[in-house]
Design goal:
Strands 1, 2, 3, 4, 5, 6, 7 and 8 form an 8-stranded mixed sheet that branches. By secondary structure, this protein is of the alpha+beta class. The protein contains 14 helices and 23 strands. The chain starts with a helix and ends with a strand.
């Protein structure tokens, strides 16, 4: 059982904490001693997981552009080496590439030092085995080794070798584009394309230089390719409105055919078409689903719970697939897709509206660069037919209005409080005329309304980790969101423990 100190570092299936000074009220808790304990905890966990002694392990280590990354890399590699392990130091790398070291380089385990899109002062540890990312229970086990002061025996003979795996990873993406576009100029399939990249000063700048330019694309007008762990221009996050405005602006200013944007560690991506339309959230899911269902007719697409009703209609009526809404959290949708495939259900894609997209053909690895590569391949194929990427999702119905509200839960046992509110709201909704409770919802409660009652839907759920209840509302009518909110407020005003 984790104590309060080590429990603070568990963030779903990652470890995260404060690694640098600079934000008032946030003291460094990822100290050298704590990181050392976590590194040793991973060695013990991995040794048990793969059935090898620590000195028989091969572990790769990479990092994103955060200012604390080089120091944490130095610490973790030295502690891995001290246990006798063979360490491959990969330097600046994307999170998906670190998983791929377990495939291509035969590593028993991999560590990526990242805190995704979080502020500059935060950092974390994300681990992989050949089976993929770790589960929450695995993270708890590693942290328990750390809190219990358990360490592998110091063994001579460990080593640290610098490896430029990102070049090999980028070459793999290049080879995929060449093969699937199959252009007359085979080695330059993107010749004549102008594609701009916004890396947000994270680890994604390689995509412009080592993939797009190599294949003949014009990348002038790309933004923030240089790594800078202070993130001076905008938050590297495809969900962030400022970040998306930046790539939209870059596309329009440069007259690009396409723009792509990544989060800090490149496990998420988004895009913008030549007309400046965002390929993000529901539209990103629609594009990815259209691509994934080619050759997988009638297949199932797993998404998180907050996707729109228009997206469900597009997947099932226009694409002929099946839409499986599941819980929020990228690992949740990936695990559900793996489960469905194990049951014999054809499921080629798991995708969250945040931009985490995992394709079965790519080890169900959430990889922003791979997703954008698939989109670029599709754009090149469509160009051969005289079509644009926007035609792929022309039938997708987008809501006229949408809003998200995040209610704070005031009670200490926030999970019990939130679960009671959802249960009470479910009973309320089932007995309320004009409220239609969704029968395919698997998180919180989703209710739809006809044209006379708001012409849309709401989803109220409990946050995966925090004492928060997010509420998502969409409507296909002007003013419809307010109509739905006013009806819902009649119930919310009777609850206790929720700050409304």
């Amino acid at each position: 059982m984790l104590n309060d100190f080590y429990k603070q570092f568990k963030s779903g299936t990652d470890i995260r904490g404060v690694a640098s000074e600079g934000v008032e009220g946030q003291s460094v808790n990822l100290t050298d001693d704590v990181i050392a304990n976590m590194a040793d905890g991973f060695v013990l966990w991995l040794s048990k997981k793969v059935g090898k002694k620590p000195e028989e392990l091969t572990i790769s280590v990479g990092r994103d552009s955060r200012i604390s990354g080089p120091h944490i890399m130095e610490l973790t590699t030295e502690y891995f080496k001290a246990s006798g392990a063979r360490v491959l130091r990969c330097g600046m790398a994307s999170t998906p590439s670190m998983f791929m070291t377990t495939v291509d380089l035969g590593c028993d385990g991999a560590l990526q030092i990242t805190a995704s899109h979080h502020p500059f002062n935060r950092n974390g540890l994300k681990f992989f085995t050949r089976e993929g990312g770790l589960e929450g229970a695995d993270i708890e086990a590693i942290l328990e080794y750390a809190q219990n002061d358990e360490h592998p025996q110091a063994v001579a003979g460990g080593s640290i070798t610098d490896v430029d795996y990102m070049t090999d990873y980028a070459k793999g993406l290049c080879d995929k584009i060449k093969k699937e576009v199959n252009a007359e100029d085979y080695d330059h399939p993107l010749k004549g394309f102008k594609i701009v990249v916004d890396a947000g000063n994270g680890a994604g700048g390689f995509y412009a230089d080592k993939v797009l330019s190599v294949l003949g694309a014009d990348t002038t007008g790309s933004r923030y390719l240089e790594p800078d762990g202070m993130f001076p221009n905008h938050v590297p996050n495809p969900e962030d409105a400022t970040a998306m405005a930046s790539i939209c602006e870059a596309v329009k200013e440069s007259g690009a055919d396409l723009g792509v944007i990544f989060d800090t560690d490149v496990d998420r991506g988004g895009a913008v078409d030549s007309k400046g339309n965002e390929i993000n959230r529901n539209r990103l899911v629609a594009v990815a689903a259209a691509i994934a269902l080619e050759g997988n007719e009638g297949g199932t697409i797993v998404t998180d719970s907050i996707t729109s009703s228009g997206l469900k209609e597009f997947i099932e009526k226009d694409l002929g697939g099946k839409h499986y809404r599941y819980r929020r959290g990228y690992k949740n949708v990936i695990d559900k897709a793996l489960e469905l495939n194990a049951q014999g259900i054809n499921c080629p894609l798991a995708i969250e509206t945040s931009g985490h997209a995992a394709l079965r053909e790519n080890y169900f690895l959430d990889d922003g660069a791979y997703l954008c590569t698939k989109i670029i391949i599709k754009a090149a194929q469509l160009r051969k037919e005289g079509k644009g990427l926007d035609e792929l999702t022309a039938n997708l119905k987008e809501p006229l209005e949408s809003r998200e509200i995040r209610f704070k839960i005031l009670e200490k046992d926030f999970r019990a409080c939130g679960e009671k509110i959802i249960a009470d709201l479910t009973t309320y909704a089932e007995n309320k005329d004009g409220w239609n409770v969704a029968d395919d919802n698997r998180e919180g409660i989703r209710v739809s309304f006809d044209e006379n009652n708001g012409n849309g839907w709401f989803l109220l759920r409990l946050s995966v980790h925090d004492p928060i209840m997010p509420l998502n509302v969409e409507s296909d009518s002007e003013g419809g969101v307010d109509v739905i909110l006013n009806q819902l407020n009649e119930f919310l005003s009777t609850t206790s423990g929720l700050d409304i």
